[in-house]
Amino acid sequence: MTRAELEVLLEGVDLPAPRRELIRHALGEAGGEEAAALLRALPDREYRSIDEVGEALEPVQPQPAAAIPTPRPESGDPPGGDRYTAQ
Question: What is the dihedral of CA 39, 45, 47, 50, to 10 degrees?
Answer without folding.
Answer: -10
